[in-house]
Every structure is written in structure tokens, then in C-alpha cells.
Amino acid sequence: MAHDTPQRFDGQRLATQGQGSVLQVQLFNPPLGCMDAQTETELLALLDRVDVTPAWRVVLFTGRDAGVFVRHYDVGVLEQRGRDMAARGLRFALDRPVPEAPLHRALARIEASDRIFIAAINGTCMGGGYELALACDLRYAQAGRYRIGLPEVNIGLLPGAGGTQKLQRVMGAARALETLLLGRTFEPAEAAAQGLVHACCDDVMAHALAAAAELADKPQPALAHIKRLARRAGQGDAAAGLADERTLFCDTMVSEAALQRMAEMNAGRRDISDR
User: Fold this and answer.
1) For 14-216, CATH number?
2) Could you tell me if residue 234 is left (phi over 0), alpha (psi between -120 and 50 degrees) or otherwise beta?
């Protein structure tokens, strides 16, 4: 596969549309718009394509069908899996960790990727759908009357794809615990006020595409390094994080893009606040 030519990806749960350096990904699964095993498989295949297509610098997820981003993981599938495991007498304990499923691997790859991922939430986004949004770097929501959040406890479950670990990063530990225990979900404006999304927008796609275009115009490797450093902040050895920051700062200093822009600024043709 040629690495310099964007390749479309169209499946049973995902469809893509490339616009230069921005890849738009539409999520769908009518009639309800739930995530399932096919969604997981196609997410991994999409990420394989992204990895070998440097032209795609920003990946933007949105829902294809009106009123739904990803409703949640298909509870019918989850019930059947639960019944099958119970019938086999399976029991689970923390000293025997369950292996990662395709969804866990896909979300981890999104977080570790040097590309920027944006969730343009245009409708219901709960459970696994919101965990996908949480894995993205930026989250914007369409104004409207629909729900966003992690309500799994209401059917006796808990968020299983990172939600219990990541929600506190966006809304604080105390409020996240309350939200998870009560199974609360939020309409878009309240979700923005609580930190679940970065903004509630009258036209979420226009807002997300404008952000994507601005990001795509910023120089590498600075974006990738900032993403890596910011995501690890507060989650480990602070001294190691600062050492990584010093090292990656120097790496950006010797990059062609930074050298050119610094020269333009020093010649009076650019200001550091220019976007």
C-alpha cells in the first residue's frame, strides 16, 4: 500500500471521507446505532489504514444517522456473552486480569497515536460510544435534547472500556465517582459545563472541521509530542514527565517546521500568537 495516497475505508459500521489532511469517519449501525463486535473489528482496520497514511493528520468521528453518535454497546450482545460465560461457570478475580478485547486495543491506539482524534458528537452518546469519545483528544457536542455519559450501573454493569479511569480526567475525581455511581447522563449543554465535552455547538460539524483544519496546519512533531506529554501528565512519575518534556522540547527545536517559523518570527513576519 502506498503511504502517500489516502485510501478510503468503507465497512458495515464505518465509512470514511477524506478532505486533504482531515479524515472524516461516520459511525452507523441502524436502527439503533449501537456498537458491536463488527464495530470493534472495523475500528482496528481503520486504525491500520490511518497508521500507513501520513496525509491524514486529524481523524474526526461523527454519527452518520440523525440523532445518534454511538448510542452505547449493544446490550443484547452483552447479555448473550454474560449468559454464555455464566453457563460455563466462569468466575472473575483481580489476580486473573481479563485480556484486552478489540475495542480496548482500538481505544488504546487512538490515545497513543501521533494523530489528533476529534469526536463530533451529533446525537446520543453513552456507554461504549462515550468511551470512544473519551479516547479522542477533543470532544464537541451538537446542541440538542439527547444524552451523553456512562449509565452502565443502571443495568448492573460498569464502564468496561476505560470509563471508570478516564472520566475523572475530564470532570474531577469526586464528581466522576458520583456520576458513575448514580449512572447519570447529561444533555449537551450540561455535558459541556461538567467537562464531558469541550464545547456545545450550534453546528458541531462546522466547529469540529474548523478545529481540525487549524490542527492540520500546525507543525509536526509538536502536536504529537504535546498529545503524548499531556496524556501522561499526573499519571506517573512527575520527574520523568518533566524529563520527557525537556527532551521533546529539544526535539521540536531542531525540526524543520519550528526552525522555519522561529526564523519568520525573528524576521518580523510572524508573531507567536498567530494561529
Assistant:
1) 3.90.226.10
2) left
Distances (CA, A) of 200 to 18, 110, 112, 141, 142: 25, 23, 26, 5, 6
Do the Cβ atoms of 127 and 169 come closer than 8 Å?
Answer: no
Q: Where are the domains of the chain?
A: 14-216, 222-266
pLDDT tens for the chain, residues 1 to 275: 344 455 677 899 999 987 789 999 999 999 999 999 999 999 999 999 999 999 999 999 999 999 999 999 999 999 999 999 999 999 999 999 999 999 999 999 999 999 999 999 999 999 999 999 999 999 999 999 999 999 999 999 999 999 999 999 999 999 999 999 999 999 999 999 999 999 999 999 999 999 999 999 998 889 999 999 998 887 778 898 899 999 999 999 999 999 999 999 999 999 998 87
